[in-house]
Amino acid sequence: MHLALLAVGVGPGDEVITTAHTFIATAEAISLTGASPVFVDIDPLTYNIDPGRVEEAITPRTKAIVPVHLYGQPAELEPLRDIATSHGLWLIEDAAQAHASEYFGKRCGSIGDLACFSFYPGKNLGAYGDAGAVTGNDEALLERVRKLRDHGRTTKYEHEEIGYPERIDALQAAILGAKLPHLEQWTQARRAHARLYNELLSGAGITTPFESPNVRHVYHLYVIRTAHRDRMLEHLHSKGIGAGIHYPIPLHRQPAYLKQGYGDVRLPITEQIASEVISLPMYPELSREQIEYVAQAVNEVIR
Ligand SMILES: Cc1ncc(COP(=O)(O)O)c(C=O)c1O
Q: In angstroms, what is the span from residue 23 Cα to ligand 1's centroid?
């Protein structure tokens, strides 16, 4: 994401519109370029950036929009593309959680001007250490990313600009190459697990994930919402279930951003959602029995 933003020319004094309901890396990459993230609220159904709130956040300093395909559900790329085009902004997808997801039948990672994937070990396609990739269709932009990631190098010892040591390392690339052919089957397994969870958690008191009919959600995380989160987490943990919260503190409330003057930012939907979400176990190898065990524990709290 750092390289993608640099490649499109984002830098000091610029603003980049994004969501606060994400992992901090989304905004961190913006801050690392010297630009400022501008957080807008999310859609209460998808938990992704609300395109209806983006236009009012645009200023003369805005350079780009960074939607996150959170939990594996594609953001509303079409309206975002329209806004980006009409205001001359770059659209950069944070696809860290969305390998093999689709928006109107097109793969995420191929729709924005550039897109960024994480291969952190816990991701849908994970390396055995840190790794990531930038994708896109514009060869000139990709060439810039290639140069920046590798010390600004044009030949072995010729450096056209100041770049970065931000390459994927060869061992991680080899591991990813071996795992990539399995991604489709793993994605189908995640989607099947989500359907089973949906079936078993259909009672009152729980909000199961919304899946827009126009997308292929790849369920990096299976996230439910409940007003009884503390009790729910305690019960799940007492039964040995590894439930988590993604993410408990919205970015505008993080000490790192409060220090930068974000204290007055108000994002009511983000704040509400962040206080209610719980991620249930989700990975391809889950068995039917394990999902039933988790669902039963969830339903016990609701009852
Ligand atoms: C939405 C999102 N963006 C960015 C990142 C950053 O990826 P990495 O840890 O590979 O830098 C992550 C995960 O770590 C993420 O979940």
A: 6
Does ligand 1 come within 6 angstroms of the Cβ of 118? yes
Q: How far apart are CA 41 and CA 159, in angstroms?
A: 41
Atom of ligand 1 nearest to the CA of 68: 1
Q: Does ligand 1 lie within 6 Å of residue 94's CB atom?
A: yes
- The CB of 30 under 6 Å from ligand 1? The reply is no
Assess whether the C-beta atom of 226 lies below 6 angstroms from ligand 1: no
Tens digit of each residue's pLDDT, the chain (303 residues): 999 999 999 999 999 999 999 999 999 999 999 999 999 999 999 999 999 999 999 999 999 999 999 999 999 999 999 999 999 999 999 999 999 999 999 999 999 999 999 999 999 999 999 999 999 999 999 999 999 999 999 999 999 999 999 999 999 999 999 999 999 999 999 999 999 999 999 877 899 999 999 999 999 999 999 999 999 999 999 999 999 999 999 999 999 999 999 999 999 999 999 999 999 999 999 999 999 999 999 999 988
Given a contact cutoff of 8 angstroms between Cβ atoms, the answer to whether 119 and 172 are in contact is yes
E strand residue ranges, 82-204: 90-94, 102-103, 106-107, 114-118, 132-136, 153-155, 158-159
